[in-house]
Amino acid sequence: MAEVKRVGMLTGGGDAPGLNGVIRAVTMKCIEDYGHEVVGLKRGWKSLLDPEQDTVMPLGVEDVRYILQEGGTILGSSRTNPYKKEGDPEKVVKQLEEFGVDALVAIGGDDTLGVAKRLHDDFGTQVIGCPKTIDNDLSATDTTFGYDTAVSIATDAIDKLRTTAKSHERVVVVEVMGRHAGWITWGAGLASAANVTLIPEVEPDLDQIASIFEKRAKSGEKWGLVAVSEGVTLSEEFMTQNAETDEFGHVRLGGIAETLAKEIESRTGIETRHVVLGHLQRGGTPTAYDRILSTRYGLRAAEAVNNGEWGKMVALRGNEIVTVDLSEATDETKTVPNDLYKAAETFFG
Amino acid sequence: MAEVKRVGMLTGGGDAPGLNGVIRAVTMKCIEDYGHEVVGLKRGWKSLLDPEQDTVMPLGVEDVRYILQEGGTILGSSRTNPYKKEGDPEKVVKQLEEFGVDALVAIGGDDTLGVAKRLHDDFGTQVIGCPKTIDNDLSATDTTFGYDTAVSIATDAIDKLRTTAKSHERVVVVEVMGRHAGWITWGAGLASAANVTLIPEVEPDLDQIASIFEKRAKSGEKWGLVAVSEGVTLSEEFMTQNAETDEFGHVRLGGIAETLAKEIESRTGIETRHVVLGHLQRGGTPTAYDRILSTRYGLRAAEAVNNGEWGKMVALRGNEIVTVDLSEATDETKTVPNDLYKAAETFFG
Amino acid sequence: MAEVKRVGMLTGGGDAPGLNGVIRAVTMKCIEDYGHEVVGLKRGWKSLLDPEQDTVMPLGVEDVRYILQEGGTILGSSRTNPYKKEGDPEKVVKQLEEFGVDALVAIGGDDTLGVAKRLHDDFGTQVIGCPKTIDNDLSATDTTFGYDTAVSIATDAIDKLRTTAKSHERVVVVEVMGRHAGWITWGAGLASAANVTLIPEVEPDLDQIASIFEKRAKSGEKWGLVAVSEGVTLSEEFMTQNAETDEFGHVRLGGIAETLAKEIESRTGIETRHVVLGHLQRGGTPTAYDRILSTRYGLRAAEAVNNGEWGKMVALRGNEIVTVDLSEATDETKTVPNDLYKAAETFFG
Amino acid sequence: MAEVKRVGMLTGGGDAPGLNGVIRAVTMKCIEDYGHEVVGLKRGWKSLLDPEQDTVMPLGVEDVRYILQEGGTILGSSRTNPYKKEGDPEKVVKQLEEFGVDALVAIGGDDTLGVAKRLHDDFGTQVIGCPKTIDNDLSATDTTFGYDTAVSIATDAIDKLRTTAKSHERVVVVEVMGRHAGWITWGAGLASAANVTLIPEVEPDLDQIASIFEKRAKSGEKWGLVAVSEGVTLSEEFMTQNAETDEFGHVRLGGIAETLAKEIESRTGIETRHVVLGHLQRGGTPTAYDRILSTRYGLRAAEAVNNGEWGKMVALRGNEIVTVDLSEATDETKTVPNDLYKAAETFFG
């Protein structure tokens, strides 16, 4: 292990509440416990291909002490991938040298960590990874930070919609984040007592959905809430069937929530609306859980830097934060297992 | 004034946080202070045209004591207007008699109160009105309940989006409720420090908007937030220009937020996204302000019932809740005056 | 009116959510609309008696753009009163000159504004006042900023305590801010559906309180919530009666909430606890309502500076922010009028 | 395993957010998946010694569907322990028979579960336990429900106090729940970026605390936050030294927060205040995390009932909910291990 002097840190890809918690913990531990110097590299991998005047951001203890409460990332981000263009990886390595960075902490999803892995393998770059995905769909780690916050925001939104759905005797279909895996939707559906929860892992059973609301209507409750992942799909035929012609004569296709809403209304006769939560789920202050989890990830990453555990990433296994090989970052998407979905089904109705 | 024995209450039209506060205050004051009996009539005017088994809902003090915290309305609602069909007004009057209702408290927007007014004028129905509109656009009253809650929800959403916008160096355009008047958007834009706020009362100046974000970008802040009312319009030509062809070959038109977002991105080169808040703004627990305001409205309505102030509605004038003629309910829409918009413009940038 | 070049601003006394909103609005309007220069003077009147290196804080538009969401005051505060010591007022005037401050905006309670008034009268100091008190007890203005936030925090706390009180069949007495006037307690008691609300303006009727809980217990609800202002008093004899001897042999007197709790338990036999909310009510992000109100106060203060309305203070009258003479700041405490308390009593039980 | 027909459920001891989640999950799974009948037994073990008219509460799916969002417990509670008095255990067993209860789910802390264990051992009572403690100090299970909510409430309170502490240049000492173990305080201190966190497991170092604030003051930050568990102790001598004489001539001893506050002020010269959070931490709606965790506990308890796993309790081990022997409920208190405290110390300053 080369003697570490200057630790560089970057955040890549979409943001997740808790990024600043990781940045803070890495910074404070590296400085206070190990005596290293820490600099932020703004805007993800782009910082090392196309540096700007503000790219290198020296980080001191007091610079980061109170960023824990802030969503987003003080280091900005980009979706730049150096491995997309020939010669770029070499540029990255060279730039790290020019910046005098001895160790790099890369915080990001499978793209960001995939790049970190390759730089380590191809050039021996001294890098530690920290996984980040609001979707909680990285096999490598049990729970990712930002997930709890996203679930909380979606849960709160569905709770808010309940009163209006009940008052107006409507069904409201809420589109929740989750393109490939339904973790956020599963969590929010469970925590909000949604009447039906639909995730990409399971094909929607339109008959089952309709009959749930018909049964509720028969017993006097002509309303309800559906939580559906954005990644749930129905056949193209079905989607087109439900398109409508707008006031300008254009045919307008809806998203999954809107399409499902029309289908539910047409099958059950209950007025149905839809809401798309979108980017709201990424933002705002992290929950206490995410502040603590991201802090723990960051502490272990700082330790890995100090130990020279290059080519590793931090991961939560049970109650422990450990290090595992960066290759695990690009493992299969972790989808919601069938038993957890069945557990949620107990509460449909 | 006939001796009042049984007070009926109904809520019509869209829901607004605070409806239960009115219901609660009318019920508790009528019973405890005046010794009247109170019944809820479920589902708005429909309750008197098409009564169901659960239409008449006896209300006691303990039934309503803790509904103050609940959004929505325990009396349900409908958009039914008895004056749409001949003979229906007579049916309503007859049904009120059959239910033994001596006095009716109608809580709703201009439609609901318009019906109340006509029943009073045409048949001498003993009715008191209480205005309700989340949009705060009733000339008759200074502030409507539910408005503060809607502004708070929209403000909180824009605050949440700020961190993600800043981290990703994007502009996010947020579509806020407000079809004819921009009160909610004005309030939320002001309270969330949005960089630009657009309301239906003022034609959007696309050059001004683009230049604000270009100026921010020049000074290193390549991001921002725009709050726009759903009722803001741009020319059909403009809307069509920004339509896109979807994966199925259909031309898809966006809403105002989506269209503006594309325009801003195309003019400034800054990545721009949009979010539509929709029904989230109607739901959930009312703010403390709305709980207090709705309670005050309800107390005065109960007093008006006891005094026999038929054909009146309660209204907030400055700091007092007074009664005014029900005809004021259907006065012009109260739009955001120019000086308040200019005040908001001070903060654009 | 002398030509205004440099506007100084200070905040004195206790903090209130919304102070930063005022600071922001004064700064942005003075700079953007009038071309004035703005400096903050840190730590209230102390800044002009005992300046430190960081006392003068130049304020630019981008320095304040996002402070609206923050509680507290970026200008710090002090309880220093220059009129307490001979020669100090002269020092203040001289220091303002040395700092090149042409116009002073003083944001504070009756102490701070009282000083502002005297400096204006005695020395012709060009000062504008902006009233601040979380207690909403300034006669001069209809509603002060920070009040809505304090009520919201107290309401939320009482709502939280309801579930635990009900589960354990206890009465919980909650001590809310309000030494001389019961506005916050009145508001929170009303908004939280507390079973009893006690304010300094009205002598507590212990028999009434006990009988309310006895009646609730008889009907199966052996629990409840009491909201009591810190400024409610009972006789010394009564307070001493309820003191207890601690584990070290010391006699320990409780506060009003604790003492009342013991009395209720002893009279009714229902287990009773107490909670003192304290400083929690001053802190945190202002509500949307307070952000808007404080912004409106600040805009009008900036206008008053530009107009040279020296010796005035801004005030809310109905829906308008106007200017009134600074002497009104030290008028009688505005207490909760009897009719508003009677309105609240409707809901006791 | 006798064929289960009627499942009884009770909740004992202090309440914790999430109890209703357990009750709901047990009820819905027992009824929907297994066809069992479920009744609630109100007021803990007291229900079986001193039954009242409302003690037995039949629970159907729709009775519990939406209680997930509610704090507290719909089954009430008591601190009654049948093993305190001779003959009472026999009464309990007899009463269970008379109520026709075949299987009992006991949700509570070590007292409640200790009784469950003994009834099983002494009489063969068919009982399943579910652990409950907001303090997260049961060795038997990795995380208890209600803990995340308590940490979130305390974190939010400390965040609120930060702005007022900073504005007034004060130190605020916040007393957080935790008599024997400092989990809640540790979590809240970490998540709120408190400058110092003190837990019962570690003797407070007053010199360290004072020097942290002196150092902050030297660098211009004359303020800060301290999170301290209620169970932290200092010597009697120390506590008495800091007692004060009240206006009635009585010597008044403070709690740990108040005493520490005085000590910090006297050592550093920085104005210091204290706040006791108390019962606020138990109440209100559970976080999404706690709703999900409590639901998972309840599902596994229902399964255990169906399987006849008598004398067991459900427990979280890593990511799995398993069953373990009820004897583990009364194992040693799980205190905060030294490495987690050291992790928190990284952030003191």
From TrEMBL, chains A, B, C, D:
Ways its activity is controlled: Non-allosteric.
Keywords annotated in UniProt: Cytoplasm, Glycolysis, Kinase, Magnesium, Metal-binding, Transferase
Residues in Phosphofructokinase domain copies: 6-305
CC cofactor: Mg(2+)
Any Gene Ontology CC annotation: 6-phosphofructokinase complex
Binding-site positions, Mg(2+): 110
The protein, known as: Pyrophosphate--fructose 6-phosphate 1-phosphotransferase
Source organism: Rubrobacter tropicus
UniProt EC number: 2.7.1.90
Pathway: Carbohydrate degradation; glycolysis; D-glyceraldehyde 3-phosphate and glycerone phosphate from D-glucose: step 3/4
Swiss-Prot/TrEMBL site (Important for catalytic activity) positions: 132
One Gene Ontology biological process: fructose 1,6-bisphosphate metabolic process
Catalytic-site annotation from UniProt: 135
Site entry: Important for catalytic activity and substrate specificity: 111
Location(s) in or outside the cell: Cytoplasm
Gene name for this UniProt entry: pfp
Residues reported in the UniProt entry to bind diphosphate: 14
Family note: Belongs to the phosphofructokinase type A (PFKA) family. Mixed-substrate PFK group III subfamily.
PANTHER family found in the cross-reference section: ATP-DEPENDENT 6-PHOSPHOFRUCTOKINASE 3, PHOSPHOFRUCTOKINASE
Reaction(s) the record says it catalyses: beta-D-fructose 6-phosphate + diphosphate = beta-D-fructose 1,6-bisphosphate + phosphate + H(+)
